[in-house]
Specification:
The chain is mostly helical. The chain contains 4 helices and 2 strands.
């Protein structure tokens, strides 16, 4: 008969492993990254209601309007970049112009949301 060998190192209990994991997670949460995340989330609590824009009697979320502005701004900047000649050298044009539209959208949401 074959003899089954037991482990030579003891297996830690599940509670000890969970405790060690929680301590390691708590150490990771300390530091400047937690401060910056909390700082960014502090601005999210000032909204009293969902921002909406009235267009011809219907209410739309303001991010939809700013997304349209971002897409239009990206198309206009594409025309400028083609005229200058930079468009020929841009890698991954679809991704670049999508990112540009989102950049314009988020900038308008961040700085222009109070204008509506």
């Amino acid at each position: 008969m074959k003899q089954i060998l037991s482990r030579t190192t003891p297996v830690p209990l599940l509670a000890d492993a969970n405790r060690a994991y929680r301590r390691a997670a708590a150490r990771r949460l300390r530091g400047p990254s937690t401060f910056f995340v909390m700082l960014m989330l502090a601005g999210a609590s000032h909204a009293e209601h969902a921002p909406a824009v009235e267009i011809t009697g219907s209410y739309f979320p303001s991010w939809m309007l700013f997304l349209v502005f971002g897409i239009v701004g990206s198309v206009l900047l594409r025309g400028v970049l083609i005229r200058i000649g930079i468009d020929d050298y841009m890698p991954f044009r679809v991704i670049s112009y999508t990112a540009l539209a989102l950049l314009i959208t988020f900038a308008l949401l961040l700085f222009g949301a109070r204008l509506l």
